[in-house]
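[Q] Does anyone have a clean structure-token version of this?
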Amino acid sequence: MVRNGDTMYGIAHRFGVSSRDVIEDNPQVENPEVLATGQKLQVKIPEGMCVSVHKVQPGETLGTIAKDEQVDRDALQLINGITEPSKLSPGDVLVMPN
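[A] Here you go.
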């Protein structure tokens, strides 16, 4: 799901794919330069690539998730393009850094 400030390039980078692939996989997006917050996009992960995700639960913070998942908090924030950690909401899906 598109978050405030997301770009096709940023989303592609987050999932380790090319922005061209993300654009081609989402023909419903009329202008790839303009994404709407909350818009749903499809991102196909290359075969054989392993991506771990975490669905945010009530009461969790970026810090508690990082600690529980044993990942660096700053890396978690960066890879997910989170500019305001306080706006993390239950149901958000985060990509875990390797």
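[Q] Thanks! Anything notable?
[A] The longest strand covers residues 53-55.
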